[in-house]
Design a protein that fits this description.
Length: 301
């Protein structure tokens, strides 16, 4: 089945993203339905964007769900066959969607199609073994980054594991939820493609207002090591996760001690959070850390 404006919804999970989300929305064809899941429960944002954009519906989550659960909530409200997952700091080039529409008519069977990042030095995909990059034709990949990925819901819903709107693993708050989905689809023999003529600009780590950058940096460091351990344990076993994560844990421990000695409070907090993220995952604890935005200015040296 080919993708059209009528059978596609766009899902954007936002969190303190007022500074970038309108640029994202403005780059999307106004004929396409957009569902914003706002994890900061910003009623003013909801009123503003719903009044300004007739194709946008904003749903306020009751809590900060993270990326995976936020995307699942968005998909739960989709009545179409396809859902394009976008981060709020992504901007589509003018012809990006038309290229995906065209490619969907050429590919017989796909679970995911993703546009390509305009930053060639930072590819948003990992190539599948024995497959090569192609600048013109769609090519198969092992996985794609979660900031822009189009899901074939009709295909995914054929599998029991994806029913009840559990596409992304909600144990993961942030990082690797996209890799986890791609890994499960790959294990099922499903195809993931990059559309090389469909280009996007990803600002990278700009989805949250810059005034919160210190606390968000602590959150990112905690969750990166937690998610990395959880992902490897889930798919490759405990000892693989341990061996894969130990170098980062040891490095973080050494740097924590170093920055404690030289009284660099900011760096000490960052590496302490890395230690905590790994330790909590090692002990089997949930991904519980949440940004404390009431204290967002406390990461000073």
């Amino acid at each position: 089945m080919s993708i059209t404006r009528q059978n596609l919804s766009v899902i954007i999970v936002s969190y303190k993203s007022e500074n970038v989300i309108e640029n994202c929305i403005n780059s999307i064809d106004p004929e396409i339905e957009i569902i914003v899941i706002d994890n900061s429960s910003n009623d003013e944002l909801k009123k503003k964007i719903e009044a300004k954009y007739k194709n946008v519906r904003c749903i306020l989550s009751k809590e900060n769900l993270g990326m995976g659960a936020g995307n699942n909530l968005g998909i739960k409200n989709v009545k179409k066959d396809f859902a394009l997952i976008l981060n709020p700091d992504v901007v589509l080039e003018k012809n990006s969607m038309n290229e995906i529409f065209t490619i969907s008519k050429e590919i017989d069977d796909f679970a995911i199609i993703a546009p390509i990042s305009d930053k060639k030095e930072y590819p948003n995909y990992i190539l599948k073994k024995d497959h090569n990059f192609d600048s013109v034709k769609p090519f198969q990949v092992k996985s794609v980054d979660g900031f822009a990925m189009l899901l074939n819901l009709k295909k995914l819903n054929q599998f029991e594991i994806f029913r009840n709107h559990k596409y992304f693993d909600e144990n993961i708050f942030m990082y690797l939820e996209n890799d986890d989905l791609c890994k499960r689809l790959s294990d099922l023999g499903e195809n993931i493609y990059i559309a090389p003529k469909s280009k996007i600009m990803h600002l990278g780590a700009k989805a949250v207002d810059n005034k919160y950058k210190n606390e968000i940096e602590l959150s990112r460091n905690w969750h990166w090591l937690w998610s990395k351990f959880y992902y490897n344990k889930k798919h490759y076993g405990f000892f693989s996760a341990l061996l894969n994560g130990l170098p980062s844990f040891i490095s973080a421990s050494i740097k924590f001690l170093l920055y404690s000695l030289i009284l660099n409070k900011g760096k000490r907090k960052i590496y302490f959070n890395r230690i905590l993220g790994f330790s909590n995952a090692l002990m089997g604890k949930k991904s519980h850390y949440r940004p404390k935005l009431n204290n967002f200015n406390d990461l000073e040296n």
